[in-house]
Design brief:
The protein has about 200 residues and is mainly β. The protein is about 15% helix and about 60% strand. The longest helix has 29 residues. It is elongated, with a radius of gyration of 20 Å. The protein has an eight-stranded antiparallel β-barrel with strand order 1-2-3-4-5-6-7-8.
Length: about 200
């Protein structure tokens, strides 16, 4: 038996946008590996790794559910102020929602301060009792320097997550589609380490 998976044009668009940052990260790491044998002037690219811990809230149809959010993250910092990153967040609400997010982040400089405020935007895939479902996220925060390469962030992310389910009525022989939107908010902290 052959199974065929069909994606709508909208899903193809979201999948393309979602995987583009991953391709850029892999291309950059390949470039760094190939430049090890042929040293060139430094491009100012740095890797940031760490984790998130905090509270997430999902709200839909007049009800809300709060839970704990935790997960790893990685970013590639280009120059001083631009980064592309990815996160895998596990939430403790009903169904244990898992978010895989890719984002673009812009850091801002404050003269004479070690605090680095930032704004971010991106796309995410959600896995909750099935899926994947698509989300759009945006937000910001600030990273506070603790030691030479170690930062503690205060972060706020929010945005809609679009759910779509299908059910089959065996008695009528029809399929019913239901769509809903959940508004997602995450208030987190964590740890960020810039690899030397």
């Amino acid at each position: 038996m052959k199974t065929t998976i069909h994606f709508s044009p909208m899903r193809k668009f979201f999948l393309t946008i979602f995987f583009l940052p991953l391709i850029l990260i892999n291309a950059q790491s390949f470039s760094n590996l190939s430049s090890a044998s042929n040293p060139l002037p430094s491009s100012g690219t740095e890797w940031i790794i760490g984790g998130r811990l905090g509270m997430s809230i999902g709200s839909s149809g007049g009800s809300a559910s709060a839970g704990l959010q935790l997960g790893p993250m990685a970013e590639v910092l280009f120059g001083k102020n631009m980064a592309v990153g990815t996160e895998l967040n596990i939430n403790t609400q009903s169904g244990t929602p898992i978010e895989w997010a890719d984002y673009f982040k812009l850091y801002f400089d404050i003269p004479g301060s070690s605090v680095k405020p930032y704004a971010s935007a991106g796309l995410s895939l959600w896995f909750v009792s099935g899926g994947p479902y698509f989300g759009i996220r945006f937000g910001g925060g600030a990273s506070f320097k603790v030691s030479n390469n170690l930062y503690i962030p205060a972060d706020l992310q929010l945005g809609p997550v679009f759910f779509s389910t299908q059910s089959y009525d065996y008695f009528k022989g029809t399929t019913t589609s239901t769509t809903s939107t959940v508004f997602y908010i995450a208030i987190t902290t964590g740890i960020r380490y810039i690899l030397p």
